[in-house]
Amino acid sequence: MASSVPSIRTLSKFAFGGAQVLLGGGQAVRGGPSQTCPSPQLSCHNTTVVENLCCFNAPGGQLLQTQFWDAEPATGPDDSWTVHGLWPDRCDGTYDANCDSSRVYRNITGIIQNFGKTDLLDYMSKYWKDYKGDDETFWQHEWSKHGTCISTLEPECYDDHKQTEEVVDYFQKAVDLFKTLPSYEWLSAAGITPSTSKTYTFQAIQDALAAKRPGVTVTLGCKSGRFNEIWYHYDVRGSVQLGEFVPANPDGTKSTCPQTGIQYLPKNGGGGDDPAPTATTTIVVPTSTSAPGEPFTGKGFLNVEVDGQNKGCIISKGTWYTSGTCATISAAEAGSGFTLSSSKGNCGVVSGALTCGGSVSNPTGFTAVEGKLAAGGNAAWSADKDAKGSTQETVYAGADHSSKVSIVWQGV
C-alpha cells in the first residue's frame, strides 16, 4: 500500500465519491461511545457531505482486522491465529499513519489496567503477540501508527473524555472483532490445516473463509510462499466504538500469496497433519472402542465430559478446548496399562497437570477405569474452570480443582 502521513488534526477537507467530507474544526457534533449517532452513513459509501467525523470514519473509512500466523518462530497458541492490529485504510487502498504525535503512549499495559480491563489485557497477552517477545512495544506501535488515525477515536468525540480512554476502546474493538473471526477453525472446517507436507491453493483458502463471510474476499499474506497473514476488511456504519462493522471487499489488490503451492506450516514443529473431526465446532459424543478396564488402543480422541455431557476435547499440548481441533492421540500397550502421545510428544502428568510434549521425558502409564482415562488408578480429573470457546484450560489429575471432568476415548 502507498502511504501518506498528514495529521488528521491539520486536514481541513477531502473529497470522496464526488462529495466533500469536512474534517476537524469546531463543527462536529460529539458522538462518542456514550451517544448514538443519528442515521449514520456507511463509510466509503457516502454521497453527501459528512460534517460529524465522530460518527463517520474518514479519511480512514475501511477498517481492517489483521491477523498473524507466526510459525517460525511460533507465537501464540498452536491452534489459533493471533492479532496483528486494527487499521484504518482510505477507501482507495492508501492509508495514513502516525497521525497524532501528542498521543504516542509508551505504557499500553498501564493504560488498560487503569481502566480495569484486566480481562482484555489477559486476552491480549495470549493472542496479541510479538514474534520477538516484546508485546508491549508491538501494542505501542499499533496504537501510534493506526489507532491515532481513526477519526471516531479522537478525544473530542467523547462526552466527559477521560485521558487515554480511546486507547482502551481501540484495543477492545480489535479484540472483539478478532473473537468473531476464528481463522484457524474456519480453515480447519474446510480441511485446510497446518502441515509440513501439504500445500494449498489461493482459491481454496479464499473459499474456506468466504463460506463464513459470504459475498466478500479477504487479503491473504504470504512470505516466501508461506501463509502468514489474513486481513479482514470492513466498512463501518457509525463510530468504531459503537458502529456496525459491515464485511467488505479489500480496498485494493493487496494479497501476496501465489495461486498454488501455499505452505501453511504448523507452529512449534508439530506434525500438523492429525485428522480432525468433520466440523471443528462440533465435538461428537464418543463411543469407546475399548472394553472397561482395558487399555485404549490405536488412535483416537480424548473427549472431555462434564456431568456425563461432552464438553470438548484434549488438544495436542494436553489442554482442554471446546472450539478447536481435537488432537489425534496414539495409545500403546505398556505393562498393565498404556501410554499416550500426541503430535507434540509423549503425554504424562507433569506437576499434576495432563501434558503432552518435550517436557514429558518418561510417559505416564495410564489405565482405563469404566471406560474413562485414569492416572494412578484414579479416573477423576479437574480444571480451575470449564473451558469455553477458544480459551484453553489445564486439566489436572484428581478432583482438587473446581471443575470436575472425566476423559473418555473416541477411536478413529
Main beta sheet strand tally, sense and closure:
10 strands, antiparallel
- Poorly predicted regions are 1-31, 270-294
Q: Approximately how much helix is present in the residues?
A: 10-25%
Sheet-strand content, in percent, reads: 25-35%
Kindly report the average pLDDT value. Answer: 84
The CATH class of the largest domain is Alpha Beta
- Structural class determined from secondary elements: alpha+beta
Provide the CATH architecture of the largest domain: Alpha-Beta Complex
Radius of gyration using CA atoms only: 24 Å
| Count of domain modules | 2
Q: Which sequence of SSEs, written as H and E, runs from N to C?
A: EEEEEEHHHHHHEEEEEEEEEEEEEEE
Subcellular location: Cytoplasm; Vacuole lumen
GO molecular function, one term: ribonuclease T2 activity
Active site: 84, 142, 146
Domain RNase T2-like C-terminal: 295-410
Keyword list:
412 residues, alpha+beta, Ribonuclease Rh, Chain A, Trefoil (Acidic Fibroblast Growth Factor, subunit A), ten-stranded antiparallel beta sheet, five-stranded antiparallel beta sheet, 14% helix, 26% strand, disordered N terminus, Ribonuclease T2-like, ribonuclease T2 activity, RNA binding, cytoplasm, hydrolase activity
